[in-house]
Amino acid sequence: MSHSLNMGSHDGVQSLAVFVVIGMVITLMIPANANLSSHFYDKVCPQALPVIRTVVQRAINREPRIGASLLRLHFHDCFVNGCDGSILLDDTKNFIGEKTAFANNNSARGFSVVDEIKAAVDKACKRPVVSCADILAIAARDSVAIYGGKHFWYQVLLGRRDARTASRSAANSNLPPPTFSFSQLVSNFQSHGLNVKDLVALSGGHTIGFARCTTFRNRIYNESNIDPRFAASLRNTCPRSGGDNNLQKLDPTPARVDTKYFTDLVHKKGLLHSDQELFKGQGRESDKLVQLYSKNTLAFARDFKASMIKMGNLKPLTGRQGEIRCHCRRIN
Ligand code: HEM
Ligand SMILES: *[C@@H]1O[C@H](CO)[C@@H](O)[C@H](O)[C@H]1NC(C)=O
Ligand SMILES: *[C@@H]1O[C@H](CO)[C@@H](O)[C@H](O)[C@H]1NC(C)=O
């Protein structure tokens, strides 16, 4: 007589218990907020990441600033209801989107490159499998690696899905303006689960790209925590009135990810008020980090990459939440 036919009621209870435990383990393996993974597209579309990298490289060759604009798009996406591609949505009759929020209006750029990436990746994958939110994360990583070299390359986590709505008022209340004081910057970052080290490291994003006169005018005419010769040198580019959109590089090497942004802060040559708030020579944690990063590329690279991954993990939509958009500017 076989063992299974002779199974007593005691064994039955035991195997039921085993099933319950297995069920609980499976349930625990599908967390409410599923994790992102670096291999998300490896099986479904192995060409996705190389194709995106090629389009980003081509766009940077065409316009050296564009990678900076792409990095900023990812930041502005993540800080408004998480990294969900919401910044890319045009206004509809149901909502006013984020593109005209204070920090984005006449400022956020790179949307047509995102469209170009989306078209190329969907064509390579033969169907829309890569979300617009992931495209922003990948394009930001690629830009940083292209401008910064191998020390600034990191494995980007993927599997985000796209939001079906966007909100200008959420963008207005969540994106920090350059007028913020240190404590306002700290609490803004804290509200996103990011600490002082993340604030300083991620502000290192200003090692690339440009700012408009209107964002630093008050600083060069009215502030005292600024090198006077540096301030004077900017007054042609940024007159007291007019020239609001005139551009100034955020650090001396706007197409290179390096530590010059931090060296500048140590010398009171931060372009934005918010930049200089990080360094006042007062021995605070942020002062020490600025000093460290100004002298140590590898320390900056290590912390910047870790904080980028942390920022990229902000409230992603995963699993069956949201959707994979067919066009990044509108919901399906
Ligand atoms: C800490 C708070 C921050 C403030 C107040 C701030 C503010 C600004 C401002 C005012 C500009 C110039 C925009 C314009 O004139 O149109 C700018 C540009 C830029 N920001 Fe930030 N930013 C912050 C953090 C970050 C972070 C965390 C990143 C990325 C990790 C980032 C990446 C950039 C880049 C790359 C540019 C240049 C964009 C371009 O040239 O198109 N910023 N930021
Ligand atoms: C955005 O900028 C445009 C052009 O300067 C301006 O006309 C418009 O009023 C701005 N929108 C908002 C919401 O500030
Ligand atoms: C300098 O500060 C004064 C007083 O706050 C303000 O009225 C003026 O507009 C500022 N100047 C510039 C160029 O921002």
UniProtKB/TrEMBL annotation:
It holds the Pfam family peroxidase. Ca(2+) 2 binds at T207, D251, D258. Its EC number is 1.11.1.7. This is Peroxidase. Removal of H(2)O(2), oxidation of toxic reductants, biosynthesis and degradation of lignin, suberization, auxin catabolism, response to environmental stresses such as wounding, pathogen attack and oxidative stress. These functions might be dependent on each isozyme/isoform in each plant tissue. Binds 2 calcium ions per subunit. It is found in: Secreted. It comes from Phaseolus vulgaris. Keywords: Calcium, Disulfide bond, Glycoprotein, Heme, Hydrogen peroxide, Iron, Membrane, Metal-binding, Oxidoreductase, Peroxidase, Secreted, Signal, Transmembrane, Transmembrane helix. PROSITE patterns: PEROXIDASE_1 (PS00435), PEROXIDASE_2 (PS00436), PEROXIDASE_4 (PS50873). The record marks R72 as: Transition state stabilizer. InterPro entries: Haem_peroxidase, Haem_peroxidase_sf, Peroxidase_pln, Peroxidases_AS, Peroxidases_heam-ligand_BS, Secretory_peroxidase. Belongs to the peroxidase family. Classical plant (class III) peroxidase subfamily. Belongs to the peroxidase family. Ascorbate peroxidase subfamily.
